[in-house]
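Q: My collaborator sent me two sequences in one message, no labels, and asked for predicted structures for both. Can we handle them in order? The first one she listed is below.
A: Yes, handling them in the order given. First sequence, followed by its structure tokens:
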Amino acid sequence: MSQFFQIHPENPQVRLIRQAATIVQEGGVIVYPTDSGYALGCHLGDKQALERIRKIRMLDEKHNFTLVCRDLSEVAVYAKVDNIAYRALRSHTPGPYTFVLLATNEVPRRLKHPKRKTIGLRVPDNAIAQSLLETLGEPMMSVTLILPGDDIPLLDPYDIRSVLQQQVDLVIDGGYCGMEATSVIDLSDETPVILRQGAGSTAEFEV
């Protein structure tokens, strides 16, 4: 049975954030709010938690996970950021974007694209997510909470708890936080490539 925390969306309670961080650090799978809807998250290096998320979402081995980071400096630890990518990241983070970049050796091999050695990274504009990442002191491994057969993410934390209470360790109720996925921009080559149009404007990246 999962725990259920109601956390204030603008002023997150420190005690609950610390408890949530402990659950992640101890191998738990959590549901948490971002600026583009609810997501599943777990510890960066936890293979078992990763497999649990794969099972919930019914994802194959080729699905790319995202590292959710607290700021641009943390992104630079896990990805190779050149001048072009740095300018794009600086002007679009935090926000509803996922950027695909070449991964550094800090990223576990199982999280990288098997051929291109890339990783998706994002910095969410959400106070709960930011507080959680700050407390963890490292990124979380994450995917959007879209259940098999659904086209859109689950929106209501109570519905999420009802459906997933036997499969996750914690559901964070952070209120309504949107339902449109992030825009995904590939910055791993010289020319940016829009992989998905989502909540964030991609006009700057159109060729």
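Q: And the one she listed second?
A: Here it is, processed independently of the first:
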Amino acid sequence: MKFTENIETQYAEFRLKNYGPPDLTIVKGEGDYVWDDEDNQYLDFGTGIATASLGHCHPALVAAISKQAETLIHASNLYRMKPQGDLCEALVKLSGPGGLFFCNSGAEASETLIKLSRLYGIQKSGTENSASKVIVLDNGFHGRTFGGMSATPQAKIQKGFYPLLPSFPVGKLNDIESFASQVDEATAAILIEPIQGEGGIHVASVEFLRELRVLCDEKEILFMIDEVQTGVGRTGNFFAHEVAGIKADAIGMAKGLGGGFPIGAVWVAKKFEELFQPGSHGCTFGGNPMACVSALTVLETIEQENLLQRVRDLSEPWIQSLNELKDTHDSLVEVRGRGFLIGLDFKQDPSKIQAELQKRGLLTVRAGGNVVRLLPPLTVSESNLKRCVELIDDVLSQMEPAASTK
């Protein structure tokens, strides 16, 4: 098959316009770096939007995927597959007694959580529709499917797609009363991110997470946690909510779980796993052998290389250095987040700052408001964390008056 040589023409003529036009063509990745089609090297602190948890082309991941591709690529959930069985067991050991459902993405994981809440509501009330409310967080994000958008109280996400699914009242971050006041007999669940990613890197406090757990226990509703971006070691714990010493009733996962290979998963606590019965949910590609060996390799590498402790150790001085930039740069308002999930909140739209960082070889990701996300791989070198701070410092210093110094 003959293709158009100019990739910009291909994207302009043949791709839908739901994304903005890219200004970079990535052709290769290795470790902390990617290269474009002109052989320019970039330090990648976007990691495919928090997916390349082991960096690019980690040798163990490449070997595992290559070996599996020679053996079995897909068979569907009509049959047993050992990689899927192994991954179920591994995630249960990390999450607690319960069961796993596999899909392809974070949005699909969110849909599974919403369906779980509906099944629980039916069990709780005895009839459909009478207990279908899921209380979500203001500024949260749970994907762009209809269920995910309905649970995402952001106008920029929902605009153009009304009417959405009903029954998603909104509470405020770190305000337990805003949740408690909305719980009634029609409430089935609470769904939150422990750190809001796309919404701007806003962190749920330990106290708030504990209060939500107590509230769900008292009112007999599900506590569902979206760990799509925060999970699999990104914050220095396997799950971000672990810092509160609590257990969820269901957890959504994706992004870094496959190290860049598409996979989503939902863990459901043993008490509620029987809510799903044959025919109640499914996914053709979910849990295929390629995805499962990718995830197993990520989990094994996290354990073998002690990456959780590494993230905790390296992130503390890195975040301190980022905070010190506020002392010399008036444009930088706040540094938020934990581990390797960090947001830089600027006074003004940071698009020009991002563009200049890219010119100098640092890739970042936007978040809500004026926030720039920094999402290095769990394997990032200490020297590249320092280089990241140096590049940001240099760019802010040279962008007067848009990023004026004190």
